[in-house]
């Protein structure tokens, strides 16, 4: 495992513009091709930004950089930089090797939801950083959130709609990335579906079945989640706190859809 430290010297007055550019172009292109962002920091004077990226090895880094340089998003980023003008004065990078493991193992918990409207159509999104496929909306759980709170927030942020949840239809573990994804099923309540500049580029309802799903959902693990949710076997779910015990939310009664 190697780490790349990228340092930018910036104009404090352009920090917000540079951060928006990073989130819209640099971050999604790196993530799409396999890099991991350890963290991104800015000095108290707001004149220097540091981002640390993680790769399997130097060969992995070089393959990602090659893919990024030949990507459509990279071309768009170059054009946007010309439009925005000078975003930073200078930049430099160096590579770091860890001297040991100082934290307990961490796993990422993600949530997503198969949401249907009154016509039985399914809410689909296409993400900026994963634009080779459509998928059901979702994302990573934030610290302190319940699974239910997380999926409701992610759906609202990515699509602009409010939904009602029925229950959990599946739990999926990505051993490569250390991600556990919990999938809910629910129904549309209100709001106009809309894309989000940072996360989603397309949002719409679409009829899906075994005959046409391959036209929309290109990744096999995403397809499996949808097919399981279309023919659900719900499992119990409780969210609670301890000392003292406090039940936060639960799914006991399953509504057939």
Note down, in words, how this protein is organized.
By secondary structure, this protein is an alpha+beta fold. It has two domains: 2-96, Alpha-Beta Plaits; 108-237, Nucleoside Triphosphate Pyrophosphohydrolase (Alpha-Beta Complex), CATH 3.90.79.10. The chain has six helices and 13 strands. It has helices at 15-32, 58-69, 72-84, 147-159, 213-216, 220-230; strands at residues 2-9, 36-42, 48-55, 90-96, 108-116, 122-127, 130-135, 138-140, 162-174, 179-190, 200-206, 237-241, 246-251. The strands form four sheets. The chain has a four-stranded antiparallel sheet with strand order 2-3-1-4. Helix 1 (15-32) runs antiparallel to helix 3. The chain is globular, with a radius of gyration of 20 Å. The model has no long low-confidence stretch (mean pLDDT 92).
CATH topology of the largest domain: Nucleoside Triphosphate Pyrophosphohydrolase
Q: What is the CATH superfamily classification of the largest domain? A: Nucleoside Triphosphate Pyrophosphohydrolase
Class by helix and strand content? alpha+beta
SSE pattern: EHEEHHEEEEEHEEEHHEE
CATH class of the largest domain: Alpha Beta
Helix proportion: 25-40%
* Spatial order of the strands forming the largest sheet: 2-3-1-4
- The appropriate CATH architecture of the largest domain is Alpha-Beta Complex
Enumerate the spans where pLDDT stays under 50 for 5 or more consecutive residues: none
Radius of gyration: 20 Å
Strand content: 35-45%
Largest sheet, if any?
4 strands, antiparallel
Distinct helical segment count = 6
Q: Termini, distance in Å?
A: 47 Å
Number of domains: 2
Number of strands: 13
């Amino acid at each position: 495992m190697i780490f790349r430290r990228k340092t930018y010297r910036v104009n404090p007055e352009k920090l917000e513009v540079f951060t928006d550019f990073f989130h819209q172009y640099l971050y999604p292109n790196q993530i799409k091709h396999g890099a991991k962002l350890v963290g991104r920091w800015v000095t108290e004077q707001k004149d220097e930004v540091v981002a640390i990226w993680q790769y399997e090895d130097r060969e992995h880094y070089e393959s990602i950089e090659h893919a990024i340089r030949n990507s459509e998003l990279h071309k768009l980023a170059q054009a946007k930089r010309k439009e925005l003008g000078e975003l930073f004065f200078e930049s430099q990078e160096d590579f770091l090797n860890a001297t040991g493991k100082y934290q307990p193992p961490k796993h990422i918990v993600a949530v997503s939801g198969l949401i249907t409207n009154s016509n039985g159509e399914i809410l689909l999104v296409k993400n900026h950083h994963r634009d080779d496929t459509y998928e059901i909306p979702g994302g990573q759980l934030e610290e302190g959130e319940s699974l239910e709170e997380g999926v409701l927030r992610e759906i609202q942020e990515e699509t602009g709609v409010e939904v009602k949840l029925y229950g959990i239809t599946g739990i999926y573990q990505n051993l490569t990335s250390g991600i556990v994804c919990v999938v809910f099923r629910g129904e549309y309540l209100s709001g106009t579906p809309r894309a989000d500049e940072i996360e989603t580029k397309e949002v719409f309802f679409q009829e899906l079945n075994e005959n046409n799903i391959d036209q929309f959902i290109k990744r096999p693990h995403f397809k499996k989640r949808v097919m399981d949710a279309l023919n659900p076997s719900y499992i119990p779910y409780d969210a609670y706190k301890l000392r003292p015990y406090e039940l936060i939310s639960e799914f006991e009664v399953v509504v057939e859809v």
